Amino acid sequence: MGGRVSTVRVQERVREHVARGAPVRIVGRGGWLDGGRPVDDFEPLSLADDRAIVEYVAGDLTLTARAGTTLSDIAAATGAEGQWLALDPFGSRNGTLGATIATGSAGPLAHAFGTPRDTVLGLEVVTGGGEIVRAGGRVVKNVAGFDLTRLFTGAWGTLAVITEATVRLRARPERDETVALLVPADGALGDWLARLRILPFTPLALEMVNSPLSATLGLEPAALLLARLGGNDDAVRAQRQLLGALGDMRDVPASVWSTLATAEPNGASVARVSAPPSRLHAIWPVLSRIDAGSLAHATVGRGVVRSICAPSDDGNGQRWLAAIGTCEGTHIFERLPARAWRTIPCRVDDPISRAVRTAFDPARILNRGILGEVA
Amino acid sequence: MALHTETPSRASGPQPEQAQDRRGALIQTEALASLLAAIVGERGVLARPSELSAYSSDGLPGYRLRPRLAVFPHTTQQLVDVVRLLARKQCPFVARGAGTGLSAGALARGDAVVVGLNRLNRIISIDPLNRLAVVEPGAVNVTLSRAAGAYGLHYAPDPSSQTACTIGGNVAENSGGPHCLKYGVTLNHVVALKVILPSGEITTLGNADGEAEGYDLLGAFVGSEGCFGIALEVTVRLTPNPQGVRTLLADFTSIDAGARATSAIIAAGILPAALEMMDGPTIRAVEASIYAAGYPADASAVLLIELDGMDEGLDADVQRVEAHCLAAGARTVRIAANEEERTRLWQGRKKAFGAMGRIAPDLVVQDAVIPRTRLPDVLREIAAIAELRQIQVCNVFHAGDGNLHPNIGYDSRNPDESRRVGLAMRDIMQACIDAGGTITGEHGVGLDKLEYMPKIFSPESLAAQCALRDAFDPERRANPGKVVPVHSCREWVGA
């Protein structure tokens, strides 16, 4: 199944659900089923079989694929041409392109390449009203019409079912090396991060990991900065010199990034706390040491700390939530136990968001409740 | 494109008379002027036809529309009061920055008031630690980079009109510029907007203090061509000045060779900060002007290529670029020896439109995007169209993005020539669409590209765009009749 035929099938399914008033849960490979708020009383609408690269023009650095295409499918195709889709969301590489875009998921590479909103060039969707809509296009620059591409990206499938996407690719750098530095003590952290921010280059990724997470990654059990360096020989050599001046530096295998992507245990609660990068030194000490087992990592250039609380019965979830609550910044929760969502404010209850939802999913059948919206 | 001298016949949305009928009693213009003057002062309102003449056109020739009135707030509060007054009176309006747009997007039909934002031009704050700046919508693009320069930073989107165009206008159009090849367009640099909706409500989109959550309404607003509301404050990301810059000029004896070099550089994975192309007629126009940059006047095309970043590693990339150019047939590849030479090379590029202006009374600057691998084919096709229609096309464009700017000098007083120019523009747009491209990469749809929207979007997709607009402006009073040809939309199911 693929292409136009599968889009029409999705359309028929959506229309049928609209007619019955029966909600659907959009599913790729299932990696996000515990993400976002609980969605009740739904029937699954699976896109996992709609898995094909529709067009890949290496010379244009663009790729169009069906929503069920996995990130590893795309990596295999583009890797053969020395290119990549520079999105490394947390979770399995068997996650789908559609789910990555729908959830706006990004990983450490966002430091250099941004998030899906910076990468998606065009989308084909079926709206909650059952219409097939194309947004954007297949070229790298496009201002024709109002930007539905950005609207559907990160909307968690509450406006439309993404059936196909065109994304911008990047050339793989000639060299791609990862080094680790010890993160200094709290008192010196602010100055050290400030020096990192003014380095005259942009690493591919610049991620701090706390001590328990370092151990999970098979590294020394200490708070570490992982820096992914890219470029030609001369550039990477110079980057190493500059970073080396900031502390004791050692090489780390590239596999650390894929291990990091899947480091969180099943059933974990996950939150992101973000603040202006200059305030990262204030929130990192709190979130990196909530308790002995909690994992944390921070994207330095974006001021985002991602905190992971392993499931347990000893009340650590409450302590974890309380610790996050003490941090000044924007709190975004990825995964929580169902009961905990009740205290988290809904982010789409403003008049414009409500009007958007009504326009694109008037029967409220798509992923109903996942963003906490009131029906 | 269409060449108009009065009310555009194809403009969608209600025409003034219809608007009056639909909205009931439309306030008398004189009374409205008085109410606006009570907010901004007598000198802040223009009402006489002679005064409004300057606001009857923008950077694109061929269109003239006289607005009902023009009002110029000096402060944010005045702007808020103006928008709220217009909301109470159900009066359509068009926000206008510097009027440098090239799609007739800032023109107001006869029932609409122009809200001029050029007096709201303050840089409110610069936060060098977090590389953010907050500006008013009328702040001129280049003044922000100049101010940020004190901290070793700059604002990356750099349209050719950057010495005049405003940040608010850039937000409306999602403007690009030569250096967006590497650094991204306006969308990638705006982190938050405080906006006033056409209803008069004030809201904040995006998040300057961290990640944004919920629907990407900021992303929707950027590039909405003034149809969703007016930005009161714009928070943008600033970019560190690169440690090193290398600017190369490669010259070719055929456009085809220049296009092949472009495709080869991009396909090789090199990401220049900018990769611009100028064809022979453009080169000669520049060299004959006060902006002469030292381009080889006998060349059929030049590529202006800029690489930046850390000093270490730059020269290796320069050598690779040079090799690709020579392999594609470049006669010479010259590297700017110093900042003075670099500035001169760039001035020629940025002032190319001005240089062309001296060889014909009118100049149409077009804008379309094609897949980069199709550059050689489409440029050949444009040359064939120019020959068929007996017009002179000058190509100066962002080759690295595949963002074409075929420009045509002509005399609008010559009806036959105007007709041929219009036909050529349609042919060129069709060629770009057929190549898998789109109708605008940075200038916007405005009025000029309305007729092409149904060629690239289905009625359902156009209806979806209208639905998004209606979430911000259900009365469609902000910049009415632009961007989406409403008559082409399928009725929006459930809206």
Tags for this model:
heterodimer, A: 375 residues, alpha+beta, Uridine Diphospho-n-acetylenolpyruvylglucosamine Reductase, domain 3, Vanillyl-alcohol Oxidase, Chain A, domain 3, 2 domains, 8-stranded antiparallel beta sheet, 5-stranded antiparallel beta sheet, 17 strands, B: alpha+beta, Uridine Diphospho-n-acetylenolpyruvylglucosamine Reductase, domain 2, Alpha-Beta Plaits, 4 domains, 7-stranded antiparallel beta sheet, 19% strand, disordered N terminus
Would you mind describing this structure in some detail?
The complex is a heterodimer of chains A (375) and B (495). Helix content of chain A is 30%, strand content 25%. By secondary structure, chain A is of the alpha+beta class. Chain A has 2 domains: 3-171 and 354-360, Uridine Diphospho-n-acetylenolpyruvylglucosamine Reductase, domain 3 (2-Layer Sandwich); 175-339, Vanillyl-alcohol Oxidase, Chain A, domain 3. In chain A, the strands form 4 sheets. An 8-stranded antiparallel sheet of chain A has the order 13-10-12-11-15-16-14-17. In chain A, strands 3-4-8-6-7 form a 5-stranded antiparallel sheet, sandwiched between helices. In chain B, 34% of the residues lie in helices and 19% in strands. Chain B has helices spanning 16-23, 29-40, 49-52, 76-88, 141-148, 167-173, 180-183, 217-221, 255-267, 280-287, 314-328, 339-350, 352-357, 375-389, 415-434, 453-456, 459-472; strands at 45-46, 69-71, 93-96, 113-116, 123-127, 132-135, 153-154, 190-196, 202-206, 230-237, 239-240, 244-252, 274-279, 301-309, 332-335, 362-365, 368-369, 393-397, 403-404, 406-410. In chain B, α2 runs antiparallel to α4 (76-88) and α14 runs antiparallel to α15 (415-434). Chain B has a 7-stranded antiparallel sheet with strand order 15-12-14-13-18-20-16, sandwiched between helices. In chain B, strands 5-6-10-8-9 form a 5-stranded antiparallel sheet. Chain B is globular. Residues 1-25 of chain B have low confidence and may be disordered.
